[in-house]
Amino acid sequence: MNRGLTLAELAKAADGAVRGPATVRVRAVAGVEDAGPDEITWVSHDKYAGRLAGSRAGAVVISAQFGETPMPAIVCEDPELGIARILAALAPPLPRPPAGVHASAVVDPSAKIGEGAAIGPLCVIGAGAAVGAGTVLHAQVFIGADTHLGDACELWPGAVVRERCRLGNRVILHPNVVVGSDGFGYRFSKTRHEKIPQTGVVEIEDDVEIGAGSCVDRAKFGATRIGRGTKIDNLVQIAHNVKIGANCVLVAQVGIAGSASLGGMVVLGGKVGVRDHVELGDGVHAAACCCISKDVPAGTVVNGIPAVPNAQYLREQAQVRRLPEWSQVMKDLLKRVERLEASTHD
Amino acid sequence: MNRGLTLAELAKAADGAVRGPATVRVRAVAGVEDAGPDEITWVSHDKYAGRLAGSRAGAVVISAQFGETPMPAIVCEDPELGIARILAALAPPLPRPPAGVHASAVVDPSAKIGEGAAIGPLCVIGAGAAVGAGTVLHAQVFIGADTHLGDACELWPGAVVRERCRLGNRVILHPNVVVGSDGFGYRFSKTRHEKIPQTGVVEIEDDVEIGAGSCVDRAKFGATRIGRGTKIDNLVQIAHNVKIGANCVLVAQVGIAGSASLGGMVVLGGKVGVRDHVELGDGVHAAACCCISKDVPAGTVVNGIPAVPNAQYLREQAQVRRLPEWSQVMKDLLKRVERLEASTHD
Amino acid sequence: MNRGLTLAELAKAADGAVRGPATVRVRAVAGVEDAGPDEITWVSHDKYAGRLAGSRAGAVVISAQFGETPMPAIVCEDPELGIARILAALAPPLPRPPAGVHASAVVDPSAKIGEGAAIGPLCVIGAGAAVGAGTVLHAQVFIGADTHLGDACELWPGAVVRERCRLGNRVILHPNVVVGSDGFGYRFSKTRHEKIPQTGVVEIEDDVEIGAGSCVDRAKFGATRIGRGTKIDNLVQIAHNVKIGANCVLVAQVGIAGSASLGGMVVLGGKVGVRDHVELGDGVHAAACCCISKDVPAGTVVNGIPAVPNAQYLREQAQVRRLPEWSQVMKDLLKRVERLEASTHD
Question: What interface predicted TM-score (ipTM) does this complex get?
Answer without folding.
Answer: 0.95
